[in-house]
Amino acid sequence: MMAAAVQKLGLELRVQTPSLADPAVAIAHQVCLGPIQDLATTRALTAHSDVITFENEFVNLADLAQLEAEGVVFAPSLRSLAPLLDKAHQRTYLRQLGLPTPDFLTLADIPAADRRTWKNPLGFPVVLKARRLGYDGQGTSVIQTAVELRAVLDTEGFEPFLLEKFVPFDRELAVMAARNSAGEIAVYPVVETQQERQICRWVLAPAELSTELQQGVATIATRLLEALEWIGIFGLELFESGGEILINEIAPRTHNSGHYTLDACETSQFEQQLRAVTGRSLGNPQLKVPGAVMVNLLGFESADLADLEDEKGQSSPRSMTGFNYVETQKKLAQIPQAHLYWYGKKVSRPGRKLGHVTVTLRSEDSQERRQEAMAAIAAIDAIWPPLA
Length: 388
Fold this sequence. Notes:
The chain has helices at 3-9, 39-46, 61-69, 78-81, 87-96, 146-156, 211-228, 261-264, 269-277, 325-333, 366-381; strands spanning 14-17, 30-33, 104-106, 126-130, 140-143, 161-165, 171-179, 185-187, 191-196, 199-205, 232-241, 244-251, 291-298, 303-304, 338-342, 347-348, 353-361. The chain folds into three domains: 3-74, Rossmann fold; 103-165, Dna Ligase, domain 1 (2-Layer Sandwich), CATH 3.30.1490; 171-381, 2-Layer Sandwich (D-amino Acid Aminotransferase, Chain A, domain 1). By secondary structure, it is of the alpha+beta class. α1 packs across α9. Helix content is 27%, strand content 24%. The strands form four sheets. Strands 7, 8, 9, 10, 11, 12, 13, 15 and 17 form a nine-stranded antiparallel β-sheet that branches. A four-stranded antiparallel β-sheet has the order 3-6-4-5. It starts with a helix and ends in a 7-residue tail after the last helix.
Protein backbone atom coordinates (compact mmCIF):
# COMPACT_ATOMS: atom_id res chain seq x y z
CA MET A 1 0.00 0.00 0.00
CA MET A 2 3.06 2.21 0.23
CA ALA A 3 4.01 1.61 -3.41
CA ALA A 4 2.23 4.63 -4.92
CA ALA A 5 3.69 6.98 -2.31
CA VAL A 6 7.22 5.63 -2.87
CA GLN A 7 6.90 6.34 -6.60
CA LYS A 8 5.27 9.75 -6.08
CA LEU A 9 8.06 10.93 -3.77
CA GLY A 10 10.85 9.44 -5.86
CA LEU A 11 12.18 7.24 -3.07
CA GLU A 12 13.87 3.85 -3.04
CA LEU A 13 12.37 1.36 -0.61
CA ARG A 14 14.46 -1.39 0.96
CA VAL A 15 12.85 -3.97 3.22
CA GLN A 16 13.94 -6.53 5.79
CA THR A 17 11.65 -9.54 5.84
CA PRO A 18 11.85 -13.20 6.87
CA SER A 19 10.00 -14.35 3.73
CA LEU A 20 10.13 -13.68 0.00
CA ALA A 21 6.35 -14.21 0.05
CA ASP A 22 5.98 -10.92 1.97
CA PRO A 23 3.80 -8.58 -0.15
CA ALA A 24 6.35 -5.77 0.39
CA VAL A 25 8.91 -7.70 -1.67
CA ALA A 26 7.04 -6.83 -4.87
CA ILE A 27 7.63 -3.07 -4.45
CA ALA A 28 11.07 -3.13 -2.85
CA HIS A 29 14.22 -1.92 -4.59
CA GLN A 30 16.22 -4.25 -2.36
CA VAL A 31 15.27 -7.12 -0.04
CA CYS A 32 17.33 -8.17 2.97
CA LEU A 33 16.10 -11.65 3.83
CA GLY A 34 16.16 -12.54 7.50
CA PRO A 35 14.17 -12.43 10.75
CA ILE A 36 13.04 -8.96 11.84
CA GLN A 37 15.11 -9.16 15.03
CA ASP A 38 18.27 -10.40 13.29
CA LEU A 39 20.89 -7.70 13.80
CA ALA A 40 23.13 -8.82 10.93
CA THR A 41 20.24 -8.55 8.46
CA THR A 42 19.33 -5.12 9.78
CA ARG A 43 22.94 -4.05 9.45
CA ALA A 44 22.84 -5.09 5.79
CA LEU A 45 19.64 -3.08 5.35
CA THR A 46 21.32 0.04 6.67
CA ALA A 47 24.25 -0.15 4.26
CA HIS A 48 22.42 1.69 1.47
CA SER A 49 19.67 3.44 3.47
CA ASP A 50 19.43 7.03 4.67
CA VAL A 51 16.77 6.29 7.28
CA ILE A 52 15.23 3.15 8.81
CA THR A 53 11.58 3.06 9.84
CA PHE A 54 9.31 0.33 11.17
CA GLU A 55 6.39 -1.70 9.84
CA ASN A 56 5.69 -3.16 13.28
CA GLU A 57 6.92 -2.79 16.84
CA PHE A 58 8.32 -6.30 17.31
CA VAL A 59 11.92 -5.11 17.46
CA ASN A 60 14.85 -5.41 19.85
CA LEU A 61 15.82 -1.90 20.91
CA ALA A 62 19.03 -3.00 22.64
CA ASP A 63 20.36 -4.51 19.42
CA LEU A 64 19.27 -1.56 17.31
CA ALA A 65 21.01 0.80 19.74
CA GLN A 66 24.31 -0.65 18.53
CA LEU A 67 23.49 0.54 15.02
CA GLU A 68 22.26 3.91 16.26
CA ALA A 69 25.61 4.38 18.03
CA GLU A 70 27.28 3.78 14.67
CA GLY A 71 25.29 6.59 13.08
CA VAL A 72 22.26 4.76 11.70
CA VAL A 73 19.18 7.01 11.69
CA PHE A 74 15.91 5.51 12.91
CA ALA A 75 12.60 7.34 12.51
CA PRO A 76 10.91 7.31 14.92
CA SER A 77 13.98 7.26 17.14
CA LEU A 78 14.62 4.36 19.49
CA ARG A 79 14.16 6.77 22.40
CA SER A 80 10.70 7.64 21.09
CA LEU A 81 9.76 3.98 20.68
CA ALA A 82 11.04 2.87 24.09
CA PRO A 83 7.96 3.82 26.20
CA LEU A 84 5.53 2.20 23.76
CA LEU A 85 6.67 -1.34 22.98
CA ASP A 86 5.69 -2.84 26.33
CA LYS A 87 2.02 -2.16 27.05
CA ALA A 88 2.69 -1.77 30.78
CA HIS A 89 5.36 0.83 30.06
CA GLN A 90 2.99 2.48 27.58
CA ARG A 91 0.22 2.74 30.17
CA THR A 92 2.63 4.11 32.78
CA TYR A 93 3.94 6.69 30.31
CA LEU A 94 0.43 7.86 29.46
CA ARG A 95 -0.38 8.18 33.15
CA GLN A 96 2.77 10.24 33.72
CA LEU A 97 1.65 12.61 30.96
CA GLY A 98 -1.75 12.94 32.60
CA LEU A 99 -3.54 11.42 29.61
CA PRO A 100 -6.77 9.44 30.12
CA THR A 101 -6.44 5.63 30.22
CA PRO A 102 -8.33 2.78 31.85
CA ASP A 103 -7.18 1.80 35.35
CA PHE A 104 -4.51 -0.91 35.16
CA LEU A 105 -2.12 -3.10 37.12
CA THR A 106 1.29 -4.38 36.07
CA LEU A 107 1.11 -7.92 37.44
CA ALA A 108 4.89 -8.31 37.59
CA ASP A 109 4.89 -5.66 40.35
CA ILE A 110 2.96 -7.95 42.71
CA PRO A 111 5.49 -9.51 45.15
CA ALA A 112 6.02 -13.22 44.60
CA ALA A 113 5.11 -13.95 48.23
CA ASP A 114 1.69 -12.36 47.75
CA ARG A 115 0.69 -13.96 44.47
CA ARG A 116 -0.93 -17.09 45.83
CA THR A 117 -3.46 -15.08 47.87
CA TRP A 118 -3.64 -12.03 45.57
CA LYS A 119 -7.11 -10.93 44.48
CA ASN A 120 -7.97 -8.75 41.50
CA PRO A 121 -9.02 -5.26 42.72
CA LEU A 122 -10.33 -4.10 39.31
CA GLY A 123 -13.50 -6.17 39.36
CA PHE A 124 -14.93 -8.49 36.71
CA PRO A 125 -15.05 -8.67 33.81
CA VAL A 126 -11.43 -7.56 33.49
CA VAL A 127 -9.06 -7.32 30.51
CA LEU A 128 -5.84 -9.36 30.51
CA LYS A 129 -3.23 -8.21 27.97
CA ALA A 130 0.13 -9.58 26.94
CA ARG A 131 2.70 -6.84 27.49
CA ARG A 132 4.57 -7.60 24.26
CA LEU A 133 3.85 -8.89 20.75
CA GLY A 134 0.05 -8.77 20.83
CA TYR A 135 -1.85 -7.66 17.72
CA ASP A 136 -5.24 -8.16 16.00
CA GLY A 137 -6.77 -9.40 19.23
CA GLN A 138 -3.97 -11.87 19.95
CA GLY A 139 -2.70 -11.53 23.47
CA THR A 140 -5.88 -9.85 24.76
CA SER A 141 -8.61 -11.66 26.71
CA VAL A 142 -11.70 -10.54 28.58
CA ILE A 143 -11.73 -12.55 31.81
CA GLN A 144 -15.11 -13.10 33.43
CA THR A 145 -14.33 -14.69 36.80
CA ALA A 146 -11.65 -14.99 39.47
CA VAL A 147 -11.40 -18.72 38.79
CA GLU A 148 -10.69 -18.08 35.10
CA LEU A 149 -8.08 -15.44 35.90
CA ARG A 150 -6.33 -17.65 38.44
CA ALA A 151 -6.18 -20.52 35.93
CA VAL A 152 -4.40 -18.33 33.38
CA LEU A 153 -1.95 -16.85 35.88
CA ASP A 154 -1.13 -20.25 37.39
CA THR A 155 -0.32 -21.53 33.91
CA GLU A 156 1.37 -18.53 32.29
CA GLY A 157 2.69 -16.62 35.30
CA PHE A 158 2.22 -12.99 36.31
CA GLU A 159 5.16 -11.37 34.48
CA PRO A 160 3.90 -11.40 30.87
CA PHE A 161 0.63 -9.60 31.60
CA LEU A 162 -1.06 -6.30 32.20
CA LEU A 163 -4.48 -6.22 33.85
CA GLU A 164 -6.92 -3.47 32.85
CA LYS A 165 -10.28 -2.38 34.14
CA PHE A 166 -12.99 -3.34 31.66
CA VAL A 167 -14.45 -0.25 29.96
CA PRO A 168 -18.16 -0.45 29.00
CA PHE A 169 -17.53 1.91 26.09
CA ASP A 170 -20.18 3.50 23.91
CA ARG A 171 -18.00 3.38 20.79
CA GLU A 172 -14.47 2.60 19.72
CA LEU A 173 -12.70 5.40 17.89
CA ALA A 174 -9.29 5.90 16.32
CA VAL A 175 -7.15 8.66 14.87
CA MET A 176 -3.94 8.85 12.87
CA ALA A 177 -1.45 11.64 13.55
CA ALA A 178 2.01 12.50 12.24
CA ARG A 179 4.96 14.73 13.09
CA ASN A 180 8.15 15.54 11.19
CA SER A 181 11.59 16.61 12.41
CA ALA A 182 10.66 20.29 12.08
CA GLY A 183 7.85 19.80 14.61
CA GLU A 184 5.07 20.10 12.01
CA ILE A 185 2.00 18.07 13.03
CA ALA A 186 -0.89 16.66 10.99
CA VAL A 187 -3.93 15.07 12.64
CA TYR A 188 -6.39 13.06 10.55
CA PRO A 189 -10.17 12.94 11.09
CA VAL A 190 -11.37 10.85 14.01
CA VAL A 191 -12.96 7.60 12.82
CA GLU A 192 -15.36 5.09 14.33
CA THR A 193 -14.28 1.44 14.36
CA GLN A 194 -16.10 -1.81 14.99
CA GLN A 195 -14.29 -4.90 16.21
CA GLU A 196 -15.20 -8.54 15.67
CA ARG A 197 -13.47 -10.89 18.11
CA GLN A 198 -11.10 -8.01 18.88
CA ILE A 199 -10.12 -7.67 15.20
CA CYS A 200 -11.14 -4.54 13.32
CA ARG A 201 -14.10 -5.30 11.04
CA TRP A 202 -14.83 -1.84 9.64
CA VAL A 203 -13.85 1.82 9.94
CA LEU A 204 -16.18 4.76 9.28
CA ALA A 205 -14.72 8.18 8.48
CA PRO A 206 -15.40 10.68 9.83
CA ALA A 207 -16.90 9.68 13.18
CA GLU A 208 -19.94 11.71 14.17
CA LEU A 209 -18.46 13.49 17.16
CA SER A 210 -19.00 16.74 19.01
CA THR A 211 -16.56 19.55 18.27
CA GLU A 212 -15.39 19.37 21.88
CA LEU A 213 -14.50 15.68 21.65
CA GLN A 214 -12.83 16.14 18.24
CA GLN A 215 -10.66 18.87 19.71
CA GLY A 216 -9.95 16.70 22.74
CA VAL A 217 -8.71 13.85 20.56
CA ALA A 218 -6.52 16.23 18.53
CA THR A 219 -5.08 17.63 21.76
CA ILE A 220 -4.24 14.14 23.04
CA ALA A 221 -2.55 13.19 19.76
CA THR A 222 -0.56 16.42 19.64
CA ARG A 223 0.51 16.09 23.27
CA LEU A 224 1.84 12.60 22.61
CA LEU A 225 3.64 13.50 19.39
CA GLU A 226 5.41 16.38 21.09
CA ALA A 227 6.24 14.55 24.32
CA LEU A 228 7.73 11.62 22.42
CA GLU A 229 9.46 13.91 19.91
CA TRP A 230 7.94 11.54 17.39
CA ILE A 231 9.02 11.41 13.76
CA GLY A 232 6.56 9.50 11.62
CA ILE A 233 2.92 8.53 11.93
CA PHE A 234 1.07 6.67 14.65
CA GLY A 235 -2.43 5.46 15.38
CA LEU A 236 -4.39 5.95 18.58
CA GLU A 237 -7.09 3.45 19.47
CA LEU A 238 -9.66 5.12 21.72
CA PHE A 239 -12.76 4.42 23.78
CA GLU A 240 -15.66 6.85 23.96
CA SER A 241 -17.35 6.22 27.29
CA GLY A 242 -19.95 8.46 28.88
CA GLY A 243 -18.90 11.47 26.84
CA GLU A 244 -15.22 11.04 27.69
CA ILE A 245 -12.24 9.76 25.70
CA LEU A 246 -9.86 7.08 27.00
CA ILE A 247 -6.74 5.85 25.23
CA ASN A 248 -6.91 2.13 24.56
CA GLU A 249 -3.57 1.64 22.78
CA ILE A 250 -0.93 3.43 20.73
CA ALA A 251 0.13 1.79 17.45
CA PRO A 252 3.57 3.30 16.66
CA ARG A 253 3.26 2.99 12.86
CA THR A 254 0.80 3.08 10.00
CA HIS A 255 -2.38 1.39 11.17
CA ASN A 256 -5.36 -0.53 9.83
CA SER A 257 -7.74 2.21 10.97
CA GLY A 258 -5.94 4.57 8.58
CA HIS A 259 -6.26 2.51 5.40
CA TYR A 260 -9.29 4.57 4.33
CA THR A 261 -6.90 7.51 3.79
CA LEU A 262 -5.63 5.90 0.57
CA ASP A 263 -8.86 6.86 -1.20
CA ALA A 264 -10.55 9.40 1.05
CA CYS A 265 -7.86 11.87 2.16
CA GLU A 266 -5.65 14.36 0.37
CA THR A 267 -2.59 12.57 1.77
CA SER A 268 -2.64 8.87 2.63
CA GLN A 269 -1.15 7.63 5.88
CA PHE A 270 1.55 5.86 3.87
CA GLU A 271 2.64 8.99 2.02
CA GLN A 272 2.51 10.91 5.31
CA GLN A 273 4.79 8.36 6.96
CA LEU A 274 7.33 8.68 4.15
CA ARG A 275 7.11 12.47 4.21
CA ALA A 276 7.70 12.58 7.95
CA VAL A 277 10.65 10.20 8.10
CA THR A 278 12.44 11.75 5.10
CA GLY A 279 12.25 15.31 6.42
CA ARG A 280 9.65 16.58 3.97
CA SER A 281 6.79 18.90 4.84
CA LEU A 282 3.64 17.04 5.82
CA GLY A 283 0.69 16.68 3.46
CA ASN A 284 -2.91 17.74 4.01
CA PRO A 285 -4.62 15.08 6.18
CA GLN A 286 -8.18 16.22 5.51
CA LEU A 287 -10.89 14.31 3.67
CA LYS A 288 -11.30 14.97 -0.05
CA VAL A 289 -14.72 13.25 -0.07
CA PRO A 290 -17.62 13.57 2.39
CA GLY A 291 -16.69 10.27 4.01
CA ALA A 292 -15.62 6.66 3.56
CA VAL A 293 -16.09 3.22 5.05
CA MET A 294 -13.28 0.66 5.04
CA VAL A 295 -14.13 -3.02 5.50
CA ASN A 296 -11.44 -5.59 6.24
CA LEU A 297 -11.55 -8.86 4.31
CA LEU A 298 -10.83 -11.26 7.15
CA GLY A 299 -9.77 -14.83 6.53
CA PHE A 300 -12.59 -17.26 7.28
CA GLU A 301 -10.77 -20.54 6.61
CA SER A 302 -7.33 -22.08 6.81
CA ALA A 303 -6.13 -22.33 3.23
CA ASP A 304 -3.07 -22.14 1.00
CA LEU A 305 -3.66 -19.27 -1.41
CA ALA A 306 -0.44 -19.75 -3.36
CA ASP A 307 -2.32 -21.48 -6.18
CA LEU A 308 -4.28 -18.32 -6.99
CA GLU A 309 -1.62 -17.80 -9.65
CA ASP A 310 -0.64 -20.58 -12.04
CA GLU A 311 2.76 -21.06 -13.62
CA LYS A 312 1.90 -18.47 -16.31
CA GLY A 313 1.20 -15.83 -13.70
CA GLN A 314 -2.52 -15.85 -14.46
CA SER A 315 -5.13 -16.07 -11.75
CA SER A 316 -6.46 -19.50 -10.95
CA PRO A 317 -10.23 -19.50 -10.24
CA ARG A 318 -10.24 -21.32 -6.91
CA SER A 319 -8.28 -21.89 -3.75
CA MET A 320 -7.43 -25.37 -2.51
CA THR A 321 -10.68 -25.43 -0.51
CA GLY A 322 -12.82 -24.52 -3.50
CA PHE A 323 -13.75 -20.96 -2.57
CA ASN A 324 -13.53 -18.73 -5.62
CA TYR A 325 -11.31 -15.90 -4.37
CA VAL A 326 -10.67 -14.44 -7.81
CA GLU A 327 -14.33 -14.13 -8.79
CA THR A 328 -15.12 -12.79 -5.32
CA GLN A 329 -12.56 -10.03 -5.77
CA LYS A 330 -14.16 -9.09 -9.08
CA LYS A 331 -17.58 -8.82 -7.42
CA LEU A 332 -16.21 -6.66 -4.61
CA ALA A 333 -14.55 -4.32 -7.11
CA GLN A 334 -17.89 -3.80 -8.85
CA ILE A 335 -19.56 -2.26 -5.79
CA PRO A 336 -20.19 1.45 -6.56
CA GLN A 337 -17.40 3.77 -5.31
CA ALA A 338 -15.44 0.71 -4.12
CA HIS A 339 -11.65 0.49 -4.04
CA LEU A 340 -10.35 -3.06 -3.53
CA TYR A 341 -6.94 -3.85 -2.01
CA TRP A 342 -5.87 -7.50 -2.09
CA TYR A 343 -2.65 -8.00 -0.15
CA GLY A 344 -1.35 -11.07 -1.96
CA LYS A 345 -0.78 -13.10 1.19
CA LYS A 346 -0.05 -16.74 0.44
CA VAL A 347 -1.83 -18.26 3.44
CA SER A 348 -5.30 -17.63 4.83
CA ARG A 349 -6.32 -18.34 8.40
CA PRO A 350 -9.39 -17.27 10.38
CA GLY A 351 -9.16 -13.60 11.32
CA ARG A 352 -6.12 -12.82 9.15
CA LYS A 353 -6.44 -9.60 7.15
CA LEU A 354 -6.25 -10.65 3.49
CA GLY A 355 -7.30 -7.32 2.02
CA HIS A 356 -9.78 -4.50 2.41
CA VAL A 357 -12.42 -2.57 0.50
CA THR A 358 -12.91 1.17 0.91
CA VAL A 359 -16.17 2.68 -0.32
CA THR A 360 -16.23 6.45 -0.60
CA LEU A 361 -19.45 8.09 0.58
CA ARG A 362 -21.32 10.91 -1.14
CA SER A 363 -23.70 12.45 1.37
CA GLU A 364 -22.79 15.59 3.32
CA ASP A 365 -25.43 14.72 5.94
CA SER A 366 -23.98 12.55 8.70
CA GLN A 367 -27.08 10.38 9.14
CA GLU A 368 -27.47 9.77 5.42
CA ARG A 369 -23.75 9.09 5.17
CA ARG A 370 -24.00 6.46 7.91
CA GLN A 371 -26.87 4.82 6.04
CA GLU A 372 -24.67 4.75 2.92
CA ALA A 373 -21.89 3.16 4.94
CA MET A 374 -24.13 0.47 6.44
CA ALA A 375 -25.46 -0.35 2.96
CA ALA A 376 -21.90 -0.67 1.67
CA ILE A 377 -20.96 -2.95 4.57
CA ALA A 378 -24.03 -5.10 3.87
CA ALA A 379 -23.09 -5.33 0.18
CA ILE A 380 -19.58 -6.49 1.06
CA ASP A 381 -20.88 -8.94 3.67
CA ALA A 382 -23.17 -10.45 1.02
CA ILE A 383 -20.09 -11.28 -1.07
CA TRP A 384 -17.33 -12.03 1.45
CA PRO A 385 -17.96 -14.89 3.94
CA PRO A 386 -18.16 -13.99 7.64
CA LEU A 387 -15.58 -14.98 10.22
CA ALA A 388 -16.84 -18.34 11.48
